[in-house]
């Protein structure tokens, strides 16, 4: 279990993480979402013991990971800086990563490098942006670390490589379950991988719940335009599109059984909403309603 209590990260006057309290059960894939500058990397850096918290506490199975060598060997943190020597060849980088970690699978690392078309003889400095990200993905997956933190690892990867990475991630997670935290801005692309969604906003926790529960916060209503308009009147609309006489409106807020029956009787189709749409709505509402953030870190927008 990972337990954060009132975790705070400050850089001078900037409060990047603001008294954040969160518990993460082991063996799940978490999606960590937040707008630019919301504190994701700062939070993950503390979790990976790359940085000390300015306040509050972090405990992994009851132990502070900072300066705990065993916990550090059990954590892999991949971020855009890659944290490897540019002069080293890929083979050497992988060899070093393997010596650091008891859970490293060297054969799997080679297979992944092959999948991502990485030439093991190349130096890191000679890699393209996308290839550097692929190298990060190889290290992040082949480490098989009990706590795997992947902070925007997809930067520069083309769509095909990203798809291969997500497929590998899921397949390897299913055969070697571990705790994976994925921070991403390409939300819709990876949302199906998340078992739980964590949204932070200006350093504070906005949402932490199962992805299905999160999705149920919204609903897409489709049908003849007049019937849709009548049904959605007075509700919070996240977006709408029309094609001919058909209209689809995305609503915020779950429908009760009576409303579902009424929609069906009116010939309307109901469907879940994308995680990204909900995320954009919640973080926009939070920005407009900033001071309404209560002590539990939930905003008025979530009620
Ligand atoms: N080394 C640093 N020195 C000073 N301020 C920093 C430093 N690192 C981050 N910050 C500030 O802390 C805040 C949170 O930054 P952080 O990188 O944690 O956000 P993020 O959610 O990862 O952002 P992004 O999605 O843009 O990568 C921002 O206001 C940022 O400017």
UniProtKB/TrEMBL annotation:
Pfam families: ABC_tran. The keyword ATP-binding applies. Keywords: ATP-binding, Nucleotide-binding. SUPFAM superfamilies: P-loop containing nucleoside triphosphate hydrolases (SSF52540). GO terms for molecular function: ATP binding; ATP hydrolysis activity. The keyword Transmembrane does not apply. Residues 2-227 form the ABC transporter domain. PROSITE patterns: ABC_TRANSPORTER_2. InterPro entries: AAA+_ATPase (IPR003593), ABC_transporter-like_ATP-bd (IPR003439), P-loop_NTPase (IPR027417). This is ABC-2 type transport system ATP-binding protein. It comes from Actinoplanes digitatis.
